[in-house]
C-alpha cells in the first residue's frame, strides 16, 4: 500500500501547496542542463547523448539509493516518495494555467488571455483570435494531462522514486532540447527519442482513459483516424482521443517561431468550436481521469495486500 499512500501524499501536497514558487528542483536542473548544453552542443547526436546521460543518470542512481535506504521504514518511504512525486507532478499547475486563460477569455479580455496562453505554448500568441486561444489552451491541457500527471504516475507506480526522476528529468530535457531547428536537431535527438520512449505506454493509457470517461465512440474514432498523423507519436493519440471525448474540433493552422504550420484536425470535424467552455471541459476530463487512476492504484494495491496475506 506504500505506493497508494505516496500518491495520496503527493496529490494532497499538490492540491494545498500548489507548485513551489521558489527553489523548485526542476529550475536548478534546468540551469544545470543549460551548462551541459553549452559544453557538449557541437551539433552532434553523440554530444546530445552524453549530455543527456550526465544530466539524468546520476539523479536516477541517487533515486535508487534513496529508495533502497528506506526499504526498512515503509511509512517514511511512503512519505519521502510522496514528496518526490509531488515535485514531479503538475496537476494543480496545469489547471491553474488553464483557468488563467479561460477566465479572461470568457470575459472578453483577449490581452490577458493571450498573455496567459503564451505561458504554456510555444506558438506565437500575439495575434490569436479567441477561438485560436481556446484551441491552444485546450490542446495544451489534454497533452500536458498526459505529460505532467499520468506519465509521471505511471513511472512512479512502475519504478518508484527513480521512475519519477527518470521521467520528469527526461521530459524536462525534451522541452529544452527537443526542437527540430538548427541548434537542436542533432544535439536534441537523444532527449526527444527518450521522451518518446518513456511516454509511449502512458500516453496510450491516457488516451484510453480519456475515451472511457468522455464520448467513447467519437474519441476512439478520432484516435484511430487522426492520432497517427500528428507530428508527435504520443501527443497525437492523447489529443485526438481527448478532443473526441469532449466533442471539440482542435488542430488547424498555427504559427511556431514565425513559421505557419498547417496541422491536422483533432477531434470530430463537426464538433464544437474551441472556447472557454472547451478549456473547462478539458480540465474536468483530466480530473475525472485522475480519479480513475487513483482508484485503480488503490484497487491494485489492495489486491496485492490480499494476495500477500493469503500466501502467509
Automatic annotation (TrEMBL):
Record-annotated membrane-spanning stretches: 49-68, 75-94, 148-167, 285-307
Compartment(s) of residence: Cell membrane
Protein topology in the membrane: Multi-pass membrane protein
Main location per the UniProt record: membrane
Pfam families in the record: CobD_Cbib
Pathway: Cofactor biosynthesis; adenosylcobalamin biosynthesis
Keywords attached to this entry: Cell membrane, Cobalamin biosynthesis, Membrane, Transmembrane, Transmembrane helix
InterPro entries given in the database record: Cobalamin_biosynth_CobD/CbiB
Family: Belongs to the CobD/CbiB family.
Descriptive protein name: Cobalamin biosynthesis protein CobD
Amino acid at each position: 500500500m506504500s505506493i497508494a499512500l505516496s500518491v495520496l501524499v503527493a496529490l494532497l501536497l499538490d492540491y494545498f501547496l500548489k507548485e513551489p514558487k521558489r527553489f523548485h528542483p526542476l529550475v536548478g536542473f534546468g540551469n544545470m542542463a543549460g551548462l551541459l548544453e553549452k559544453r557538449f552542443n557541437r551539433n552532434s547526436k553523440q554530444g546530445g547523448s552524453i549530455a543527456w546521460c550526465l544530466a539524468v543518470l546520476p539523479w536516477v542512481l541517487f533515486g535508487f539509493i534513496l529508495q533502497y535506504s528506506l526499504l526498512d521504514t515503509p511509512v517514511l518511504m511512503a512519505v519521502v516518495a510522496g514528496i518526490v512525486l509531488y515535485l514531479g507532478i503538475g496537476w494543480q499547475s496545469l489547471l491553474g494555467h488553464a483557468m488563467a486563460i479561460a477566465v479572461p477569455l470568457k470575459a472578453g479580455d483577449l490581452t490577458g488571455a493571450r498573455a496567459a496562453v503564451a505561458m504554456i505554448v510555444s506558438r506565437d500568441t500575439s495575434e490569436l483570435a479567441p477561438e485560436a486561444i481556446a484551441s491552444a489552451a485546450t490542446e495544451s491541457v489534454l497533452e500536458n494531462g498526459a505529460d505532467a500527471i499520468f506519465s509521471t504516475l505511471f513511472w512512479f507506480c512502475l519504478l518508484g522514486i527513480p521512475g519519477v526522476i527518470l521521467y520528469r528529468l527526461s521530459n524536462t530535457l525534451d522541452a529544452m532540447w527537443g526542437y527540430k531547428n538548427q541548434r537542436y536537431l542533432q544535439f536534441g535527438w537523444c532527449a526527444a527519442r527518450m521522451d518518446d520512449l518513456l511516454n509511449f505506454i502512458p500516453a496510450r493509457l491516457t488516451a484510453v482513459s480519456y475515451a472511457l470517461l468522455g464520448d467513447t465512440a467519437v474519441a476512439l474514432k478520432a484516435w484511430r483516424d487522426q492520432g497517427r498523423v500528428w507530428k508527435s507519436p504520443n501527443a497525437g493519440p492523447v489529443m485526438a482521443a481527448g478532443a473526441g471525448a469532449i466533442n471539440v474540433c482542435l488542430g488547424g493552422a498555427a504559427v511556431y517561431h514565425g513559421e505557419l504550420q498547417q496541422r491536422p484536425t483533432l477531434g470530430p470535424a463537426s464538433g464544437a468550436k474551441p472556447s472557454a467552455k472547451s478549456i473547462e471541459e478539458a480540465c474536468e476530463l483530466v480530473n475525472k481521469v485522475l480519479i480513475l487512476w487513483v482508484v485503480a492504484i488503490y484497487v491494485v494495491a489492495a489486491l496485492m495486500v490480499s494476495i500477500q496475506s493469503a500466501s502467509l
